[in-house]
Amino acid sequence: MKYEQLNTPSYIVQEKALLKNLNILKDVSDSTGCKILLAEKAFSMYRVYPLIARYLVGTTASGLFEAKLSYEEFRTDGEPVKAVKENHVFEPAYKPDEMKEICSICTHLYFNSIAQLEAHRSIWEPYQKAGKIKVALRINPEFSTQEGHAIYDPCSPGSRLGIRRESLPEKLPEGVTGLHFHTLCEQGAEPLIDTFRSVEKTFGSYLDKISWINMGGGHHISKADYDTEKLKSFLNETKEKYGLEIYLEPGEAIALDAGTLITRVLDRVETSDIPTFILDASAACHMPDVLEMPYTPPLFGSLDSRGSSDAPGADAADGDADEGGSGQNAGDGVWVRLASRTCLAGDVIGIYKLPSYPAIGDILTFGDMAIYSMVKNNTFNGMALPDIVLEHAEDTEDRFEIVKHFGYEDFKMRLS
Predict the structure, then answer these.
(1) What single DSSP character describes residue 107?
(2) pLDDT tier for residue 151 given thresholds of 50, 70 and 90
(3) Angstrom distance (rounded) from CA 106 to CA 158
(4) Which residues pair with 402 in a beta bridge?
(5) pTM of the complete model
């Protein structure tokens, strides 16, 4: 299919960008012997699982459904359905009626408390003793490296994620062979190293009693300024010192900057400060992190941007554009507010400086829309979900494949 034939809104995932990220991750893995997993909570487009499975050893799930998706779909082309790949799962608490199925399809099982470990022991222990599953405890280093995003900080005061040292016995419970910590969010190698030094200090007595450790996600390994050499050095040093099998489970690093969201301008509304343009995409429905994080997503062709709740400032009116004009004579650009067609007053994507005012019918493209978009979107207000499109690496005119189109039935089936 040609680009001009795509519907709006649509998520477009670029295979070429995925391959770039995956090769970076494979280089880290090959250079250190560490195992890298896809965190499905960030990116679960299983159409490209066969591609990802050529570079990564498996996935990590946040519950039964993600674990089943991995079990069914994460395999390279040509492998049989349910081919054995590593299938890790962590939940703060497991439902008893799901535990048997989880143990039957997963290779690694993480518990968030000793109480949960023991509550489900009668189910997981036979699998563990048969060598079919490995068991770990998630720990809380109580060492925060984040600023300003408590909602994403597992080490924030009162966090329910991970066991604090004071709650662990001197000897790990029988059957536990691994430890897990996950404390980062969109961060570099230095915070990981600092966190592990804290783990060594607080949980060091366990490190020579386990055989593997999962250092979680939040690693921006494929970002341009990430120091991969420092990461490799750290991983090799740690492996040599403790003899541990090391796992990393990034989600964003796999699909970072590998997706866009295209949307069409439907209307222009004259508001009290700057013009607001109504799009057929929604922050609340199609890019929830914009409101939750919050952050302002990159817009292709934008000269500048500000948060959706920020006033544009005095310079927003600068320029020589005619009253309500096209902005063609707007000097260094014009400020606009981009918002959705939902009825939520705060459904604003951001404030952007553009070379000129967009026209009704124009297509705008937001970047970095592969991660935490498809996995979190919703149909609030009866909004249709965007199409999911794969842009194949081959540079041909018809390289766009509509993987999934959503309609009314997808909205209706979630209701009763």
Answers:
(1) S
(2) confident
(3) 30
(4) 389
(5) 0.92
